[in-house]
Structure formats: C-alpha cells, structure tokens
Specification:
The protein is an alpha+beta fold and 439 residues long. It is built from ten helices and 22 strands. The radius of gyration is 29 Å and the shape is elongated. The chain starts with 16 loop residues before the first strand and ends with a helix.
C-alpha cells in the first residue's frame, strides 16, 4: 500500500490531499492545486425547523432561530514557477467561466420547545408521545396524573393491531386458510392484550372496513379453526369507541403544553459558483496548498454491475446517463481500505465522469474530499431524496430484484477498478486558460 494512503484517522494535515491520500511529492510547474479560503467572521443564517412529532402547522408557530455559519471556498491555481523555501508563483484558473468550489455547510442542533397539546393528533398522542419515553423526544412532566395515564396505556397492545393490518395489506391472497389463521392468532392475543385502534391515514381506516367485511364473511370457518365462537363484528364496533374513551382520558390528564424536541438545521450542498472572495493570490507556500489535482495510485473507483435505489431495488442502467449537478449518489472506492460513500455532483466533465464532493453523512474523515467520479462506479442513487428530483420518474420502481444491504454489497458487485485521476479537471481548467490567452 502507499505510504501516504489514508485509512480512517491517517490524514496528515501538514500535507495536501491528492484524491484520498496525503501528498508528499515535489510539485512541478504546470500543476493544478487547490486552496481553501474561509470567511473571517461567520454569517448569521436562519435555520429550518423539523420534528417527527410536531405537525408542520404547529412548527410554523414556533420562534425562528438563527445561528453562525462559516462560508468556505476552494480556489484553483496553476503553478507558474518554483521558488525558494517551498514557495511557488501561481496564477488562478477556473472551471467554467469564473467558478470555484463552494463547500457544503451542514450544521444543526436540537432544543426543547413548548408546544400546545391541542396541536397533536389523536394518533400522535396515543402512539408517538406515550411510546417515546426511551428516545427522549418529549421532556416528560413529573407528576402523578401523567404517570397514571402512561400506566393505563401501557396495558394495551398497539403492536398486535398494527401487525394484523400489515399482514392483511401484504398478503397477495386474502381469502386463504393462512390468512384466517393469522386473523385467529392476532385475536387470541387481542383477548389477552386489548388493542387500541388509531390510524394516521384515511387508507388505514378503509383497510379496517375491508378487513371487517372479510372476517364477517368467513366467521364460521374462523370459528371452526378456533374451536370457539367470537363475535368479530361486535368487537370491531366497540374498538373505536373504546379507543376514543382512552384518548379522552389521556387528554384530560395531560398538561396544556409539552416540551418537545425540535431540530434546527442549516444545510447547503457543495456546488460550483462564482467566488465570493477576491483571491488576489500570486504566491503560495507548500503548507497553504489544500489539494493537488494529480492521480492517486493508492485508490480506485470500483465499477458496479448494478445501480440501486436507497431501498436496494435495482434501477435501469439508463439512470447513470441522467445525472446532473446537485444530485446525490453513492460510489464504491477500493484501495488499502474499502469505502462506499455519498457524493454531491458538482459538474459533468465527460459523458461518464463528474467532478463531485463527498457528502459527509457517515465518515467524518472524508470531509472536504473532492474527486472525479465515474457514473459506472455509482452503486446507489436515492431517487426519493429531494436533491434527486430530476430522477423522479424512477421513484415508481418499488418492487423487483435487489439487495438487502445497499452499501457494502458494492464490493461483491464490483467487476473492474478505474484509476482515481483529475485529468478531466485539469483539462477543463487549462482549456479555459488557453482560450483566454488566444482571445
């Protein structure tokens, strides 16, 4: 392996990056290098709000919160002369007309906000709030009435009821002995742990009604399987009434407001834009260079036989040709250590190759790595994610062949390794310099 290849915590910050490795070789005239520039003072930006408990309407009534955000850019330069003491004369080069790499900004924090209980739906109160103690999404009040309703509700089985209708929705053939035995098994459990019926969507209520009709039509056969009679219709008729009574009792014991965890976030993806900083740089020292745009022999891109969505379903190969700047894709990287990481595409360079910035979701040691990726090495495209909206036509593919694990299956699926080079970036940057020189 290369002496300078990065394997997790081996980044040497006194050396520039080249691909995924530390760069310690001499630089030459004509080399392209990158320099990171950062604002002296952070800017104040308004953060967006989110919560898996609080509705969008209730969130809109919470106070706006802002926080400090630091803007960073990477500017490219060509070395024009080698000077003494590791100094270099340089001149700026750009991608496109006048663009540099704007770095991604992802910052967030959580805090508890006072939210009116009246803004919560019945579903939220009977499920998320009272079954969320271990996650601490609620700052639970310490008083006897709250403990009392929690103890009452913990005697009911939401899981039994949800399992019953999930079985019903997923079985391809409804009127089968297998289905009837499942119905029987759930109802036996329901007699021991009485379920509550709460639904989040109207289609769940429609499922219930269809289910009741089927149970009623087959009640004699189900009774024979059970060896006893069970009045299903009466049971279902009482279910919503019983659930509403428990809900009203719960509501009467809750305070008017609860402190709920809310996430505040500011997120901007990496992109190519005109610079915000005027980089009047004519000379650089070696330690000021952040990236060297040469080949990284230690690592390569693993060509993937297939490409999947986030759920692991194999997508048509044609999707590789439809990628564009802003898309988020997952790429397989091989070398001294194997990695499958997400990239934000910055620019299309050739029919298959793209300048892309690693989006730091899982591996913090890869922060700020910019590579030229190949669409043939893309192993996953989360078409349902907002930044991939141009690929929305592929969201309807929810069934078919696929993989249970979408990440590290890529190493098994790889059949070729491509070199990790920046040749396309260098060509684009220098072709513009040549164009300006001949005008």
């Amino acid at each position: 392996r290369s002496e300078y290849a990065i394997d997790f915590a081996e980044r040497q910050y006194d050396l520039p990056l080249c691909g995924i490795s530390n760069y310690a070789s001499p630089l030459c005239v004509g080399d392209i290098v990158g320099v990171q520039l950062e604002a002296n003072q952070p800017e104040v930006r308004q953060f967006s709000r989110s919560s898996h408990i609080v509705s969008e309407d209730a969130l809109s009534h919470l106070p706006h919160r802002s926080g400090p955000v630091t803007h960073r850019e990477e500017h490219l330069f060509q070395i024009t002369a080698i000077l003494e003491d590791s100094n270099f004369a340089v001149s700026p080069v750009f991608l496109n007309e006048n663009q540099v790499i704007h770095k991604a900004v992802d910052t967030s924090y959580c805090t508890y906000e006072e939210v009116s209980v009246a803004s919560f739906s019945k579903y939220t109160i009977l499920t998320t709030i009272l079954w969320d103690k271990s996650r601490r999404a609620i700052e639970y009040p310490e008083h006897e009435s709250f403990d009392e309703i929690y103890n009452v509700l913990s005697g009911y089985s939401l899981e039994a009821w949800s399992a019953l209708w999930e079985d019903w929705k997923t079985l391809p053939e409804k009127n089968t002995t297998r289905q009837k035995k499942r119905i029987l098994g759930v109802f036996k459990k329901a007699q021991k742990y009485p379920p509550l019926f709460v639904y989040e969507k109207e289609e769940d209520l429609a499922t219930l009604k269809t289910f009741v009709e089927t149970v009623e039509a087959n009640k004699l056969e189900i009774a024979q399987l059970a060896g006893t009679q069970f009045d299903f219709v009466a049971y279902f008729n009482q279910l919503e009434e019983k659930t509403d009574a428990v809900y009203q009792r719960t509501l009467s014991n809750l305070p008017e407001t609860l402190k709920v965890e809310v996430s505040y976030e500011y997120s901007v993806g990496a992109c190519l834009k005109e610079p915000r900083f005027a980089a009047n740089i004519t000379h650089l020292k070696f330690h000021e260079i952040f990236r060297v745009f040469q080949s990284d022999p230690a690592f390569g891109l693993n060509v993937s036989r297939t490409v999947t969505n986030w759920s692991g379903i194999i997508l048509p190969e044609a999707i590789r040709e439809e990628l564009q700047p802003g898309n988020r894709v997952r790429v397989s990287i091989g070398g001294p250590s194997e990695h499958v990481v997400y990239f934000t595409i910055l620019q299309k360079l050739t029919p298959h190759r793209y300048l892309a910035s690693i989006h730091n979701m899982y591996l913090s040691e890869f922060e700020d790595i910019v590579l030229v990726i190949d669409s043939r090495a893309v192993t996953e495209i989360p078409v349902s994610w907002e930044m991939n909206s141009n690929l929305a036509e592929y969201r309807s593919i929810v069934e078919g062949e696929g993989f249970g694990v979408t990440g590290y299956r890529a190493f098994v699926d790889a059949n070729e390794t491509l070199s990790l080079t920046y040749d396309d970036v260098v060509f684009h940057a220098l072709s513009r310099v040549f164009k300006l020189a001949t005008q």
